[in-house]
Q: What sequence folds into this?
């Protein structure tokens, strides 16, 4: 029987690449996100085994409504939704406490709470042998991202995922975090690359190149496979040696 996978933030970038790799593993894939038009276009391009579902994964009420239409059995859950919603140049000054709080909370909701809420809603549907995979970030290790909410939000995923792995391990469910380096995943990243601002980060790595979405998706696909049954509770770094996870 084909496995069923759910990929949040599956309309483009890393999420789309993950969906493609899971299709190659004979999975039926549901891609979710906030923008229906992007999801529908991606599903049309990837084929009939991909189902788009538009809702905000940071909104508990939206998840509850969507849950009735999501698969009753979820073999693979990939919590990919998120991204840096505020950058240094856009962050409020430290003295503007209300605005600063709101900016940090937007990052926490987009990157941490989407994963927490989706996992809580769908974990009862995950059978023995199931897989939960979180997409983290090299920003969890700093690299200039600790001054705003994105890096800390991604960092919070890691200890939570470890505890979840210990909780669900007796049920044969694995939980891991894939932590990409600088990845060319969207127009913002392409602009950062074209400007030359990404060059120091890329040159600090061993491979001397940016991470591609296919690099990340390939690691997710392995962790989603039956071959990864004894790999759990781990944060696996896919960054070309920019950060060494040891």
A:
């Amino acid at each position: 029987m084909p496995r069923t996978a759910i990929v949040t933030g599956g309309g483009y970038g890393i999420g789309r690449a993950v969906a493609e790799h899971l299709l190659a593993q004979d999975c039926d894939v549901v891609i979710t996100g906030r923008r229906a038009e992007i999801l529908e276009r991606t599903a049309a391009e990837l084929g009939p085994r991909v189902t788009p579902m538009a809702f905000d994964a940071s909104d508990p009420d939206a998840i509850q409504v969507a849950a009735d239409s999501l698969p009753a059995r979820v073999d693979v859950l990939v919590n990919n939704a998120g991204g840096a919603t505020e950058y240094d140049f856009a962050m409020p000054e430290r003295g503007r406490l209300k605005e600063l709080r709101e900016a940090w909370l937007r990052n926490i909701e987009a990157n941490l709470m989407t994963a927490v809420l989706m996992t809580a809603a769908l974990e009862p549907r995950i059978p023995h042998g199931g897989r939960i995979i979180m997409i983290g970030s090299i920003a969890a290790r700093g690299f200039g991202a600790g001054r705003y909410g994105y890096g800390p939000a991604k960092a919070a995923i890691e200890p939570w995922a470890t505890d979840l792995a210990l909780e669900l391990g007796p049920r044969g469910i694995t939980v891991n975090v894939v932590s990409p380096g600088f990845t060319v995943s969207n127009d913002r990243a392409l602009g950062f690359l074209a400007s030359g601002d990404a060059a120091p980060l890329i040159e600090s790595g061993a491979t001397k190149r940016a991470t591609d979405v296919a690099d990340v998706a390939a690691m997710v696909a392995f962790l989603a496979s039956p071959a990864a049954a004894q790999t759990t509770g781990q944060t696996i770094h896919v960054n070309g040696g920019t950060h060494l996870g040891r």
